[in-house]
Design goal:
- This protein is mainly α and 37 residues long.
- It is built from 1 helix and no strands.
- The protein has one helix at residues 2-36.
- The radius of gyration is 16 Å and the shape is rod-shaped.
- The termini are far apart.
- 0% of the residues are buried.
Length: 37
């Protein structure tokens, strides 16, 4: 039970991390695209 909970919480933290990074880098990618087009 505890092990499963830790696994789920780790997965959830990874998803939050990916979402945060995506939100952080998306404007940078848009600026790069805007510069090169």
């Amino acid at each position: 039970m505890c092990k499963g909970f830790l696994l789920i919480s780790k997965l959830y933290a990874d998803i939050l991390d990916i979402m945060f990074n995506f939100c952080l880098f998306m404007p940078i990618f848009k600026i790069i695209k805007w510069i090169f087009t």
